[in-house]
Amino acid sequence: MKVTIIGAGNMGSAFVKQLVLAGHQVSVTARDSAKAAQVAAAHPGAQAVAVAGAANGADAVVLATGYGDATAALQAVGDLQGKVVIDITNPLTADYMGLTLGHSSSAAEEIARAVPGAEVVKGFNTVFAQVLSDGADFGDGRKVTVFVASDSARAKQTATALAQSMGFEVVDAGGLKNARYLEPLAGLNIYLGYGAGLGTAIAPTWVHKA
């Protein structure tokens, strides 16, 4: 697939790495163009592209920014009408130990409202960047699980295909409103990994036996 990654931070870089390894045609864009170029250069086969028009021609767009920057980032990359947008964001508080949304909405639902032409799917938000970068297979029959939630069957299918191509197990988590469950789940992972000092290796809690 042709995939555009928005964001050149830890998650964006990990996506570029794994999607290139999986054989996809990967473009990366970011507010800091030099950082996007650095990420692309580190993963031969990827290309850095300008923000304007970055979504053009893409089969999927991976939103790998902070939630606070998400809407502006999506609106800057071009026409998203009919585009599959994989939202990996979590609406975290400044100390990363809480959420700013929940119960009656979610980051994914708010993003979908902001870009109504896009087909938004929640996914990968429970996976630590280090785990994504290292790969889905732990070498002992276990694989990291990715949950996908969307009101669009096509968006789910696209996110599932990308996740599986990178070696992840996938669980269908229902409609987009179930991002209200997935985002607190990510918050729990973050607390356990960093707040409780258990490290990113806590992520294998969410695994399948092959």
TrEMBL record:
GO molecular function per UniProt: oxidoreductase activity
Keywords: Oxidoreductase
One Pfam family from the record: F420_oxidored
InterPro entries attached to this UniProt entry: NAD(P)-bd_dom_sf, P5C_Rdtase_cat_N, STEAP_metalloreductase
Residue ranges occupied by any Pyrroline-5-carboxylate reductase catalytic N-terminal domain in the UniProt entry: 2-91
Name of protein: Pyrroline-5-carboxylate reductase
Organism from which the protein derives: Hydrogenophaga pseudoflava
Organism phylogeny: Bacteria, Pseudomonadati, Pseudomonadota, Betaproteobacteria, Burkholderiales
